[in-house]
Amino acid sequence: MANTGYSSNPGDFETIARSTVPSELAVMQALLESERIPAFIVDGGIHQLHFLIAVATGGARLQVASEYAAAARRILADLATGQLMLEEDDKTLHEPLEEKGAVPENKRRGRALGAALLFFLGGS
């Protein structure tokens, strides 16, 4: 059996965030997907229909594949600490986005704002 360098089996998923407000998780999901990390929300729909179930089950969950979990947690930690907030004079939104490769830290801010705007204006 080949060693892939991952400690978990391929196909395993980890919960990296929980919330009783699925729209918060949708913003996080959009941010992760803008960083090319596939993410999905578990139990988001039922919680929008029956809020009391959200309290009883601990809320909806944002999950990613195990191999992306560490990177996803770092990005969400940056979001939580405010490192992805735009400054008033920040020109990140006016710079062209890179086509390939990792997204530099300064471009994450613009993508986070863009992802949030797309979610709230376009719906999901």
TrEMBL record:
SUPFAM superfamilies: GlnB-like (SSF54913). This is DUF2007 domain-containing protein. It comes from the Bacteria.
